[in-house]
Amino acid sequence: MTIRIAMAQLDMLVGDIKHNTESVIAQSLVARDEHQADVIVFPELTLTGYPPEDLLLRPSLAPRIEAALASILDQVHDIYVVVGYPRDIDGELFNCAGVFYQGQILGEYCKQKLPNFQVFDDKRYFQAGTTPCIVDIKGAKVGLSICEDIWHPEPIAQAKEAGAELILNLNASPFHIEKMGVREQLLQRRASENQLPIVYVNYMGAQDELVYEGGSFVVDAQGHKVRQAPWYEAGLYCVDVTVEEDRDPRVAVLAGEVATTLDVEASVYQAMVTGLRDYIEKNRFKGIVLGLSGGIDSALSLAVAVDAIGAERVQAVMMPYTYTSSMSLEDAEEEAKLLGVEYSVLPIEPMVTAFMDTLAPEFEGYGRDTTEENLQARTRGVTLMAISNKKGYMVLTTGNKSEMAVGYATLYGDMVGGYSVLKDVFKTLVFRLSRYRNSLGYVIPERVITRPPSAELAPDQVDEDSLPSYEVLDQILHMYIEQDMSAEAILASGEFEHDTVYRVLRLVDLNEYKRRQAPTGVRVTERGFGRDRRYPITNGWHIGE
């Protein structure tokens, strides 16, 4: 007996239960009729999309879910449908996976392990299940599990004890660097310790800052990967399972196509493209406008924007001032031409002069300082927002994680915008990603990558006048932000000067108020600003104590 399982690696819209349900029905019929699948498995919380957050608290959630389940039961036959959804059971909400066949719910599993760390808040919404769910599918005893369950030994061991011969694991596991390998090692361990094959079906797409890269895969009972769906590609990906009565174990998975694993630069770049594309499309923006400075951050952001939604929907605006170099003007124009986007040059000197003239009485008696620099950035922000309002284009900000960490950005200036693809990308990675993008096609001029970074808000200004080198800065930031190391622990590594470490950490702490007001953006590290790292703005914590 052969059972064909279709892994439905799909992109849903959070909150659109009606449309998501229609997609489940349509894809189930495609799996049945075009792929000859016996079973289709959808990701975690498919019907609501992921993460639904406080939509789970809405009083109308329960009737909408019940109506969705009724539609699936009524309209899909001759294929087993395994799908994730929230469900109210006796007044308590559970994260469920149900098996539907021929108008009946054959089994329903409630997620047992509820993550409540990093970007996850499951315990805010759900009660934990306690029992396994084993369903007979064409003679095979199939156990269900949901996402976090697989990270703990108990749920799979419990399913094995209850008779499971195959595990279907429904996921909404967001991307971060290196997570692909971690997942694979985890499933190898779970499969081999229980001698059970596991089908891992992951969500595909993006929701606000979270990106789901798909990459659904299958391991056999010994933990060997035998099927790998591609990353960042929605679709139905099938695997065949055989059941033989005279074999021990009776259930085995057949080898299929194994997609090539992406390297760090390729996976991060695709995450940025996916995150931006979904944000633009799901929020129905007409296009993107961004300030093109001639620097590497805006050049990389422009490339991502074009790859996400196409050059015809992207506008780049160069807004030169007195300190803008001819090199920057030349490079910005070349970037725009290479990528084929609409390009405008709007000098801001008349606007800055008007602001300065108006403010002259208030500034009398004060020397020149960063106020004048910030005024340039804020003028650019006003200009971009005016274009955004008029054309219905979203402003894409271009600041990177290194800058945002230490506050090297102007509130209501270059921080103005609706989304950022570099929000969680350290500057050193920006350089690597720029090289990677050029390997796909030359779009970022070489000297943009090699010249010293500068905000060009003052004569002969470069970033390292105000900051340590990015190689040093990013290492310290990684230790402090992503590894939660103290100042003394960082110093104990013996790599950095005392004053540099204390200064960087103090800047990070002082600028929490800025980051709270920054636009959302793609999360690519294990600990990004926003949902991951939540520190009080007002606090009396002292570094080094």
Task: Using brief descriptors, characterize the structure shown.
Rossmann fold; alpha/beta; C-N_Hydrolase; 545 residues; nucleotide-binding; Nitrilase/N-carbamoyl-D-aminoacid amidohydrolase; 17 helices; NAD+ synthase (glutamine-hydrolyzing) activity; glutaminase activity; seven-stranded mixed sheet; NAD+ synthase activity
Radius of gyration equals 26 Å
Strand residue content: 15-25%
Q: Which assembly state applies to the chains in this document?
A: single chain
Write out the strand line-up for the largest beta sheet, numbering strands in chain order: 5-4-3-2-1-14-15
Average per-residue pLDDT, rounded, comes to: 94
Largest sheet properties? 7 strands, mixed
Q: Which class of the largest domain in CATH terms?
A: Alpha Beta
Number of strands: 20
Helix run count = 17
How many domains is the backbone divided into? 2
Can you tell me the overall shape? elongated
Q: The CATH topology of the largest domain, please? A: Nitrilase/N-carbamoyl-D-aminoacid amidohydrolase
Question: What structural category do the secondary elements indicate?
Answer: alpha/beta
Helix content: 25-40%
Low-confidence stretches: none
Distance between the termini: 66 Å
CATH superfamily of the largest domain: Carbon-nitrogen hydrolase
